[in-house]
Amino acid sequence: MFKDLQISNFSEQRHSDTQFMEHSKYFIQGSIDNNSNPVIFPDSINKILNNYLQLNKESRDLVDVIAHLICNGIDIQSNMKSLSFLSFVSAIESLVNYEYRDRKDEIKFECTDCQTISESPIKCVKCNRPIWGVKAKFKEFLMTYISASNDSIKNTTVFIILDVISFTMGYCC
């Protein structure tokens, strides 16, 4: 029995070598919906996977949840546009909430029941009152990670998560 299970040599490879594409082109070229194309990886795949494996459990779980939300959105977008949009928004909202999970201490409430804000790191441009709603967090998130300037991109856990999610979107479905 033992000899039957022992590996003496590997089978011949029947598939072509793995194809790689420049990282910057990978995320803007090709369609993730075209299953007839060969599987191509960004040339940064090793770094992406290493970064994913180095994330703590909470962060990895978040990547998994967001990847599933994005895949669900992709799967249903042709039949159920509203639910697909909701799935994409939920994915982004999950990432934004993760980014600001430690900043709750910076918010001071006048009233804990109605959550009227007395102090916040973000102020309204028009009236200078403190704000900290979904829109304010989302705008700050975009300015931090998706700004046109490369100077704003930081190699933080959120950026690593964005990188992993971007890669996962291409081959999760």
Tell me about this structure.
- The chain is mainly alpha-helical and about 170 residues long.
- The protein has helices spanning about 1-5, 25, 45-55, 55-75, 80-100, 135-145, 155-170; strands at about 20, 40, 110, 115-120, 120-125, 130.
- Strand 1, helix 2 and strand 2 form a beta-alpha-beta unit.
- The longest helix is centred in the middle third of the chain and has 20 residues, at about 55-75.
- It is elongated and about 75 Å long.
- The two termini are about 40 Å apart.
- Mean pLDDT is about 75; it is low at about 170-173.
Quick tags:
173 residues; mainly alpha; two-stranded parallel sheet; two-stranded antiparallel sheet; 49% helix; 10% strand; elongated
Low-confidence stretches: 168-173
Structure annotation, total helices = 7
Count of extended strands: 6
The arrangement of helices and strands along the chain is HEHEHHHEEEEHH
